């Protein structure tokens, strides 16, 4: 009709179910396969879709752990697990990224592994029934407990010098660290905040603290 506006033809849309998902990792390795004891024959045949760096493509978990053991940083991470904190998994994943010497779970043995995204396979995860058992372990390996909590008496993390052989200890989201850990810590550090919330997510706090340690002790 004269004067009528022409309607634009609708753009063709590809159904979401038909959009190919991006491929992670690599496919099957071309034959002949390299003769390397680190390589996993099943991964060579089927491809390696794990979230690992290229250096470890097609490597078995055991071979990756053995190699990481030769490069472990002297940093340790500990989490008091009194409330089954869902942040523990993300803390473990970050600890893997920094290749720490060990992760220590104090209190409840069970913890939420979902956030770890199977990175706990590549770490030494220790369980301690209570604070005294944990502190005895640290004394035996010469690691200094550093509490991370925004309580009275804490010093700003950004101005603190952390020992090379440190164990950064974090509490559950909300209640924070137990009095036993706070009393035994060589020092207490807190992440300076400028907003209205009293505390930040425990998983985020752990990542910040590990990064701060890494700046002071580069590989």
From TrEMBL:
Residues 8-19 have a biased composition (Acidic residues). This is SpoU rRNA methylase family protein. It holds the Pfam family SpoU_methylase. It comes from the Bacteria. It comes from Propioniferax innocua. Transmembrane segments: none annotated. GO terms for biological process: methylation; RNA processing. GO terms for molecular function: RNA binding; RNA methyltransferase activity. Residues 1-39 are annotated as: Disordered. InterPro entries: Alpha/beta_knot_MTases, rRNA_Methyltransferase, SpoU_MeTrfase, tRNA_m1G_MTases_N. Keywords: Methyltransferase, Transferase. Residues 75-211 form the tRNA/rRNA methyltransferase SpoU type domain.
């Amino acid at each position: 009709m004269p004067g009528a506006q022409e309607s634009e033809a609708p753009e063709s849309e590809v159904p979401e179910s038909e959009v190919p998902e991006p491929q992670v990792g690599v496919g099957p390795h071309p034959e002949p396969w390299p003769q390397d004891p680190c390589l996993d024959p099943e991964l060579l045949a089927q491809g390696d879709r794990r979230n690992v760096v290229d250096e470890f493509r097609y490597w078995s978990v055991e071979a990756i752990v053995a190699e990481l053991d030769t490069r472990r940083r002297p940093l340790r991470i500990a989490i008091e697990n009194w409330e089954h904190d869902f942040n523990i998994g993300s803390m473990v994943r970050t600890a893997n990224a920094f290749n720490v010497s060990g992760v220590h779970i104090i209190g409840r043995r069970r913890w939420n592994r979902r956030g770890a995204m199977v990175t706990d396979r590549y770490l030494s995860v220790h369980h301690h029934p209570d604070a005294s058992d944990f502190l005895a372990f640290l004394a035996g390996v010469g690691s200094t407990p550093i509490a991370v909590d925004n309580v009275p008496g804490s010093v700003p993390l950004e101005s603190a010098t952390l020992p090379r052989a440190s164990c950064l200890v974090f509490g559950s989201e909300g209640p924070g660290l137990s009095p036993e850990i706070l009393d035994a810590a060589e020092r207490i550090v807190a992440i300076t905040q400028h907003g209205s919330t009293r505390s930040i997510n425990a998983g985020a706090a752990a990542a910040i603290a590990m990064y701060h340690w890494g700046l002071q002790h580069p590989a």
